[in-house]
What we know:
Elements: E1 5-9, H1 13-24, E2 28-32, E3 48-49, H2 57-75, E4 81-82, E5 86-90, H3 93-105, E6 114-116, H4 118-124, E7 135-139, E8 143-145, H5 147-160, E9 164-166, E10 169-175, E11 178-183, E12 188-192, E13 195-198, H6 204-210, H7 220-223, E14 234-240, E15 250-253, E16 256-260, E17 266-269, H8 271-274, H9 287-298, E18 307-314, E19 324-327, E20 334-338, H10 342-357
Parallel strand pairs: 1-2, 1-13, 2-9, 5-15, 13-20
Antiparallel strand pairs: 3-8, 4-8, 5-7, 6-7, 10-11, 11-12, 14-17, 14-18, 15-16, 16-17, 19-20
Helix pairs in contact: 1-5, 1-10, 2-10
The structure holds flavin-adenine dinucleotide.
Amino acid sequence: MNRTRIVVIGAGVIGCSLAAEFVRRGADVTVIDAAEPASGTSAATFAWINGNDKAPAEYSLLNFLGMQAHEREARRGGRWFHQTGMIQVAQSASELEQLEANVARVAWDEYGARVLTREEVLTREPQLDPARIAGGAIYPREGWIDVETMCLSLIDEAITAGAVFRPFRTVREVGQGHVIAVAEDGSAERYDADAVVIAAGNGTRTILADAGIDFPLLDPSENADGTGTPGSSVGIISTTGRVDSGIRHFVRATGIALRPARNGGITFADHPTGGQWAKTDPEIWSVPGILLDRVQELYPSLRDATVESVKLGTRVLPKDGLTVADWVDADRRIYAVATHSGVTLAAHLAATVADEVLGGARHESLETFGLGRFAVDFAPGR
Length: 382
Ligand SMILES: Cc1cc2nc3c(=O)[nH]c(=O)nc-3n(C[C@H](O)[C@H](O)[C@H](O)COP(=O)(O)OP(=O)(O)OC[C@H]3O[C@@H](n4cnc5c(N)ncnc54)[C@H](O)[C@@H]3O)c2cc1C
């Protein structure tokens, strides 16, 4: 029996997850990327795994399914999900009220969210400055992903099981049944496929524009405008050098979020602060210092920490901020996946999309995440 030939475009967290999943299901897989694995948005992500406080309800559920899929991957041996739990810290009575409301909004008992007393917060995170803590909440199934390890492990799993990986090839044309990619020496290569799955992050729009499809993804150059709004696509992720911090959880407080990092340091970010500037604005480089001050106020034990690395990321944002996972042509030969929260969603999207592309029914969790909600013309056959 001939195996289904799948070409995956993009080796970010979505493409690498898809590659491993297609191989597990017996497909003949080729992965193409313009660069190395995990070098796009997946290289500059906070990688917080969560499904709380996301709207609408279907998107929140999709993220919770994403968390559960990561738990399954961990049970089958994946070593990249650090399920530390997330502690949200309240520093005042009004923040405590907001936090209680947020815990009450989490729709699922299995999520395990619960309010903590001030003493419980300090027992779990003993290095926090007690003078700043009024109380907190814990979300025990949340955590963070070591994205580089995840991508490299999954692409390695796929290659070991027979997939072909073609890095440093830029896809210039996608048709129904083929892909044309150009190598760094300018030579063009053709790949034939039963189905092409585009997981090219912010490159998805360009690839599909060339195929005659106006894919509903925000153009980062249009919304990286320094508005500081949740719609801003720019994000800045900072990491300290190795430090004996005693930080055990993913921790959030007003104006700062932080977590342990793979280098033994602490990674920290704040979207409203980091999203205030365009990537090219020199002022953006003030963000790591501003945020490190906030980290050190919460954790006096980090007073000697210094910033070792800073990454500027560009979010992959469909026009309504939600996930798109759908066929883009009437003949069902070209499928596209583009999403924010892609680290949380990768394992679940990989399983459900692979199923659908290989002929299975559409998973009910994807029902509201198709292209039907946008006015998109399907690709003309070619
Ligand atoms: C600052 C920031 C913080 C974030 N925080 C979180 C978080 O806490 N939790 C969470 O779940 N998500 C978070 N995200 C979102 C998450 O990181 C992204 O949704 C995810 O990384 C997207 O992965 P991807 O594989 O779709 O895209 P990418 O990682 O960008 O991968 C796409 C790949 O496609 C390749 N490509 C593009 N065009 C072509 C072409 N023409 N030919 C060949 N290859 C091509 C690129 O080289 C790239 O390797 C954050 C994002 C940012 C920017």
